[in-house]
Amino acid sequence: MPRKVVFIADADSWSGESLVTRFSQGDWDLILNSAQDEQEWQDVIQFCRAAGAKVLITHVDLCSSRDLTTMLDQAEQLLGPIDVVIHNSSLIKPTRVESCMESEFVEIMQRNTKSAFLCTQTFGRKMSARRSGSFIFVSSIHNEKPTGSSFAYSASQGALKMLAHEAALFLGRSGVRVNVIEMGPVEGSDTSFPSDISGLYNDYRYKIPGTRLGTANDLGDLAFFLAGEESGYLNGADIRLDGGFILHYMDHRMNKPVEGETRSQ
């Protein structure tokens, strides 16, 4: 079976290492977009090569259609057509509706949403012509649920979700699938979304019915499934990966350990 090629939009992100590890072990070659020099990736490259995977490090500006087109042409010459695009670029900054600077809002929307639009447009043209391919947008439960601390981030995720739906409708006619992973809490989410008007992330671990926070490995496994043929009928889906966190609605019903009880995490 010929190897497939995956493009990971932000290999430097919290999810990057897990995505690289999961795909390199599964007969995939990888294009890793990074802000770091290639020297910083030598250990990763050696690891992937040991697993039989080819790796290409790129430094493309995701908000430049010209740069994306140039990179795509070069990458296809080296590795072949790109089968899957994972857009996991995400910028979170504290922003309030009443005080957010225009420059802050634009920065977040460009990093999180404009980049996704241009990736969809640029890669989508090639995939449509081949009548195959898949996009996986790594989003958040905050594409619907406010954070109480970063309205611009929530707005960017809401826009990303609708972009994915529109793309699934259009690109799906050419055999290209588009799906969204809505990430819930991971370690450190309470510091990512500090708020004095929302208690959403107070004791957030215990608002998950199983009291286990999500990890980058959970994301990597789900992305790998969505990239494969087993998920071939999934298009336009929003898959919530939050352990049931968003279902919680009463703090006094949290699944906290009783006094003296210890629980492995």
- The portion of residues assigned to helices is 25-40%
Secondary-structure element order, N to C: EHEHEHEHEHEHHE
User: What gross morphology would you assign?
Assistant: globular
Q: Spans of 5+ residues with little confidence (pLDDT < 50)? A: none
Sheet-strand content, in percent, reads 5-15%
Terminal Cα span: 39 Å
Largest sheet: 7 strands, parallel
Strand order of the largest sheet: 3-2-1-4-5-6-7
Rg is 19 Å
Look at the structure and give the mean pLDDT: 94
Q: Can you count the helices?
A: 7
Strands, total number: 7
Helical/strand content category: alpha/beta
Structure description:
The chain has 265 residues and is of the alpha/beta class. It has helices spanning 16-24, 42-50, 65-79, 102-130, 151-171, 189-192, 216-227, and strands at residues 4-8, 28-33, 55-58, 84-87, 133-140, 176-183, 238-241. It has a seven-stranded parallel β-sheet, sandwiched between helices.
Question: How are the SSEs ordered, and which strands pair?
Answer:
Blueprint: E1 4-8, H1 16-24, E2 28-33, H2 42-50, E3 55-58, H3 65-79, E4 84-87, H4 102-130, E5 133-140, H5 151-171, E6 176-183, H6 189-192, H7 216-227, E7 238-241
Helix pairs in contact: 1-7, 3-4, 4-5
Distinctive features:
265 residues, alpha/beta, seven-stranded parallel β-sheet, 7 helices, 7 strands, 37% helix, 15% strand
